Amino acid sequence: MKQSLVLATGNPGKVNELSELLAEHHIEVLPQSDFDVPDVPETGTTFVENAIIKARHAAKCTGLPAIADDSGLEVDFLKGQPGIYSARYAGEAGNDAANNEKLMQAMEIAPENQRSARFQCVLVYMRHADDPTPVICQGTWEGSIVTEPQGDEGFGYDPLFWVDAHKCTSAELPRAVKNQLSHRGKALKQLLSHFKHLD
Prior knowledge:
CATH class: Alpha Beta
Structural class: alpha/beta
Radius of gyration: 17 Å
Shape: globular
CATH architecture: Alpha-Beta Complex
Order of helices and strands: EHEHEHEEEEHH
CATH topology: Maf protein
Strand content: 15-25%
Helix content: 25-40%
Number of strands: 7
């Protein structure tokens, strides 16, 4: 039997990625935009807090179990920035081109050996809005920041994120490979193992 979950995002890239990964487990992912759920202010100071805020809000508005993802890029040279502000680093939420431009400018003076970075993803699953024990899963993807964007797959900071094992950026990886390697893919694998134990 197919189970429906609401995904607490309107980001089509995230919806597609999670839908693909969950489809084989007979889980249908519905974006919160299908229910006209308004965005909730992300007032947390960590990925975990923001993911819980978003999942609770989506579950409360729809009456469905909810998954929320809070993810972002931590750059060591920038002391962990943009971090939880990754989507709105340049000011306007979700403007990938502006965010990438700002990051490239901030990294102009970074030496070759100080460009390490990682994507972090926290996924929260809440069975209902008052779930006292939300499932929290975290995935990390290590890489570094290139000096020029490369590739046009993916979204967000993918064109700037160098994956050393594959000698290319995240935006040059086939989607199936990215799903295996990515911070979101890793967090989701943890979440799927939890589904076996959830009613």
